[in-house]
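Protein modeling request. Please complete all fields; requests missing the sequence field cannot be processed.
Requester role: graduate student
Desired output: 3D structure, token encoding
Chains: 1
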Amino acid sequence: MDFIKKNIWLILLVLWGLPLSYYRSKFRKIVYQTESWLINIKPYFIKEIKGLFGTLYPENKSYIKFRNFYLFYLMVYLLLLLLYIIFDKKN
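Delivered output (91 residues):
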């Protein structure tokens, strides 16, 4: 129980990060308009970043909905990472 109390931010960070690869894969498939799994290992980032912070397909409602969800997910992930760094230095 003491381990959980001391490492709660790390545990939350790991648990929240588990579905990251699935969400990123789904987002990349929408941005690059492909169903190929190979998009997950290709080093393309420019269009992905533009798609994340801009609007590549304004008429595509599923893209906009998933982009907003993915942005929210990444912001919570970043917040958990920052909290982990802050509280880990205090220990």
